[in-house]
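Z., the sequence and structure:
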Amino acid sequence: MVVMYSKEILKGIIIGNGKTLLNIYRDDRRTIGYSVKIAFGFRGSNEFLERINRSLLQHNIVFTKPTSKQPFPLSTRKKENQSKIISLLGDIPLSEDLELLKDLLDVQNSNMSKLEKFEKIIKIQGESNGTNEYEYE
């Protein structure tokens, strides 16, 4: 039997179970010398993740299955899918993880220079960790 979640239940799952992961690392191949990777995903039993995945596909939100490099068993690193997640929720108050994702997407979609975007993302990360200070090497 194929089980899918309604839009309202899916919203609750996204808010309650979804997690944002921000990785910033040194990368000499990049113009500014750093790379930023944002992932949004879910953890849970295989059955639960399959249900979430089927339900998200109904809203044209594509998540990927696990690979050795992914932090979550079900995740997306594509900005358009992450934006669709935020849009799906509408005016619902967002969890801290979703606020972080929304703020990061706003910066990435802005017209700032790469360096300004990077500095803003570092600042957002520091604020999400409870500090107002940020450093990068």
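The mean pLDDT is 85. The CA atoms of residues 35 and 109 lie 16 Å apart.

Let me know what you think.
H.
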